[in-house]
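Need tokens for this chain, all 240 residues.
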Amino acid sequence: MMLLIDRLNQERHKLSSLGSLLLVFVVFSMAQAIKGPAEMLAQEAMELTTTLIEPLLQPPPKTPPPQIKQPEPKPKMLAMPNAPITPTPIEPVREITASAAATATAESPRPLPAPTPSAPVAAAPVQEPPKIPPQPPVSVNLENNYIAIVRATLNANKRYPTGREASLQRPSGKVKLWFVLARNGALQDAGIDESSNSIILDNAALSTLRRTTYAPWPEGSWASQSQHKFTVTLDFVPLN
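Here are the structure tokens for all 240 residues:
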């Protein structure tokens, strides 16, 4: 720390010296420009500046490091030769009686109560795996597939009616049919469940049922039945 302060002081003196030299140079330049009395003034200014610079160029006095004060020793108390010595009173030993022992026991600190056990932390509930919805029996899938095949076959065999009346009236509508198939696919019975309000379209729908050939039932479908009733809706649209 002291070295840093000394260095700062030296730098400050150097800067002051440079500033003084710059001032001398400026004054000297002005003196050269002015003749006559100005030369005398310049000479006096140089003498004055030299007088001011000389104490600045001298190195600054070093500051002695601070001295650490040692603690002063306390004066020892000297015993007076004729001073009376005061004896230290000695307390008599007291006998501990039964009553005093009981009192001491009663005043002794009571033992701290045992810590209450903390309530057990409830375990995190175990997440059950997601339930998989029950899959339909294999027979149901076979039956639904067979029904879809039958309906697709009937729509493929559907024909718009031809003839003079159909050409003149050009009826359109939907016919809902019911029909009964045996296990081997034979047509047992058929009828109209909902009419299209057109005899031409109703007859065309029944004709589609009767001329279609149906495949036998798949094994495992409608196990307790020998024949089954189906329904289908045929939509008739006149040709352009």
